[in-house]
Design brief:
It contains 15 helices and no strands. Helix content is 68%, strand content 0%. With 369 residues, the chain is an all-alpha fold. The protein is globular and about 55 Å long. The chain has one domain: Glycosyltransferase (Alpha/alpha barrel). InterPro entries: SLAC1/Mae1/Ssu1/TehA, Tellurite_res_ion_channel, Voltage-dep_anion_channel_sf. Keywords: Membrane, Transmembrane, Transmembrane helix. It is found in: Membrane. It is a multi-pass membrane protein.
Length: 369
């Protein structure tokens, strides 16, 4: 649980926060005494959500530059943001990959926990976005290989996730249900979206992941929303930022649906857009409460929903060939807000990580686990 001594979080302690305070005078000596894997083992799976948000921001900026305006300077700006976001996202993802390779015991603990297993699919979703970025920059073979691995990993994590869902459903354990449960079953839609962007045909079955996601969405989204809104089941303070995830599913499905050829005359197009707007309003109403919470890695849940909401608004406007007016203004507002959210969240992650490095005694010793 978050401490009450100020905004301080041990990023490397899998999201547990401690009291306020900076590094001690012997902080550098403490860091030197600790093996590298001591710090890697404590990196929370939530950093994968941050990596997904950072990489997706670059893609969204490029979409805005290509669709909303044609000015050269904005295209250059979007390319720069995309390049920076790609490198930062890859670096963040490599941190967690290093943990999985060097300290597999801690990684397996993440996989075995309900919350960790539900968040980990953001890892392979990030790989899909990276593959799409690489494909658009001419690295076709490498991109297809990475995309294929990412899809396989997502399917494995989805099957492992079922181990938590089935018992919870049978025993009606509503305490176990969190908004993060939406990620594994609905996030697989990104496979169809990225495959379409990369021009992969998959034997004519490129949309199969989208329809699988739609099927699961009809069950998991209402269940998570019902638990959050109606049941009155208390949510641990650390998990409260996960409510931001509600803004992502409809936006992701709308983006993928349009990429697959969904048109403005289809009922599903309007239904998903309306649902997205309602979800955004719902999450926005929670922001005053969430903004005063102590920072935890679960705040990464804000990043990708902000990105995908902006992108869905952009391509929805483009579908109607709108070049000015309310929709275009909303698209820019969404994009600027997403940029702000991702930047602030990434900065707070860096700050939390530096605080943890300066005070390694606040971390649990992996050797003792």
């Amino acid at each position: 649980m978050a401490g009450t001594g100020g905004e301080r979080i041990s990023l490397l302690a899998a999201g547990n926060t401690g009291g306020a305070g900076g590094g001690s005078s012997g902080g550098h000596e403490k860091v030197a005494e600790r093996p590298l894997r001591f710090y890697l083992s404590a990196i929370p799976p939530s950093v994968c959500g941050l990596a997904l948000g950072v990489c997706s921001l670059g893609v969204t900026w490029q979409s805005a530059a290509a669709i909303l305006v044609a000015s050269g300077w904005l295209r250059v700006t979007a390319d720069i943001i995309s390049l920076v976001a790609f490198n930062l996202g890859c670096t963040t993802l490599l941190l967690y990959m290093s943990k999985a390779v060097i300290y597999p015991t801690s990684f397996l603990h993440d996989v075995s926990s309900s919350l960790g297993n539900s968040v980990l699919p953001t890892f392979d979703m990030t790989l899909m976005v990276i593959a799409m970025w690489m494909y658009k920059h001419g690295l076709h073979s490498a991109a297809v290989a990475i995309w294929s691995v990412a899809v396989a990993v997502h399917v494995v994590l989805l099957l492992l996730f079922a181990r938590h869902v089935v018992p919870a459903v049978k025993e009606q354990r509503w305490d176990d249900v969190t908004p993060a449960w939406i990620i594994p079953p609905v996030g697989i839609a990104l496979a169809s979206g990225t495959a379409s962007e990369m021009g992969l045909q998959l034997g004519g079955y490129v949309g199969i992941f989208f329809w699988i996601a739609i099927f699961f969405f009809c069950f998991f989204f209402p269940a998570a929303l019902y638990k959050t809104v109606s049941l009155g089941v208390p949510t641990p303070e650390r998990q409260e930022p996960l409510v931001a995830i509600f803004a992502a599913p409809a936006a992701l499905l709308l983006t993928v649906w349009i990429a697959l050829g969904g048109h403005q005359g289809h009922t599903l197009t309007h239904f998903l857009f309306l649902l997205e707007m309602l979800a955004v309003v719902f999450v926005a109403a929670k922001i005053p409460r969430l903004s005063v919470l102590p920072f935890t890695p679960e705040h990464s849940a804000f990043t990708f929903p902000a990105d995908i909401a902006a992108k869905s608004c952009i391509i929805y406007s483009h579908m109607y060939l709108v070049t000015r007016g309310v929709m275009v203004v909303c698209s820019w507002l969404f994009l600027f807000f997403a940029t702000f959210v991702v930047t602030v969240t990434a900065a707070r992650f860096c700050r939390a990580g530096l605080q943890a490095l300066s005070d390694p005694d606040s971390l649990s010793d992996p050797e003792a686990a």
